[in-house]
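Subject: Sanity check before I submit

Could someone independently write out the structure tokens for this chain? I want to compare against mine line by line before I put it in a report. The sequence has 331 residues.
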Amino acid sequence: MSDETPEIAAALAQPMPLEPELDEARKELVALINRITGGRDGTVDTPVAGLQVFCISKPDGPKHAFATPALGLIAQGSKRIIMGDDIYVYDPMHYLVTSVDLPVCGQVRLTSDNEPYLGVRLELALDEIGELIGDEKLPAKANVPASSRGMYVNRIAMPVLEPVLRLLRLLETPEDVPIMAPLIKREIMYRLLVNGEGARLRQIALQDSHTQRIAKAISALRVNYAQSLRVEDMARAVHMSVSSFHHHFKAVTAMSPLQYQKQLRLQEARRQMLMTGTDVASAAHSVGYESPSQFAREYGRMFGAPPLRDKQRWLSEAGNDAMAAASMEAA
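---
Independent answer below. Compare away.
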């Protein structure tokens, strides 16, 4: 796995200041998120469909998760995302766009102990992006490779940030949400399409593009991850040769179909063990592993501990959190 480049490390150590207009907008974003979260840690699902805000004051280790099509903005702190061999870092000066479902590992970082991580996530409706792309009045953008990464980072700009602020302000007048929210969300998607690397986002919605074909294969793989993987069948289903399918799948996801399936299986097995109490053997079998030793080996590589130890650690931490919460309530 590659490391951060010296340029990224330097940027994180000494971030460049935002332009005055952007910095004022960022300060408003901080205030809006604090108002919505009440300054408390956690994730808040807002009345605007697909819009979430986050407050994290004590980030822990890297988290494995599944990224779905969305825009990610940060008001305070930064986040490091690992996808395959790629590393993405974004902060208040940048935003993250994900256009396909991707298994990732992310870690939140604080700027200082006094400033919690504050972020916004807005789900992207790919069908609506497709409608925008079909509009003949949409400004033309430079061509990009036939298939390109399903995740990218762009420099923040006021045309992107300003409608996000309006969407958050809208929460203060709930009666306006049903009419105004869809209009503002459409504006945000338009801004993403015409700003910076927006041509990459267009690829996912272009009818019969290589990126869209890979997205269809990913959707099928997410449903059938426990079955034996036959790349020939997947390639045939999206009308591609095996070699072309391999090439474009890795171009979009930064991993091979087999690596993608492995991450799917391991994440689902972990979810079953930690969230539903499934035993290790049953979880391994349910996601398609026939060899317990292979499951334990690959699980340990991905999550840093064998399945049983990881489960016991999680239960211990959950128990400690519950006891701490109970003591706070008693106080």
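---
OP: Matches mine. For the report I'm noting this point. Strands lie at 42-45, 51-56, 63-67, 70-76, 78-83, 86-90, 94-98, 102-109, 117-123, 151-155.
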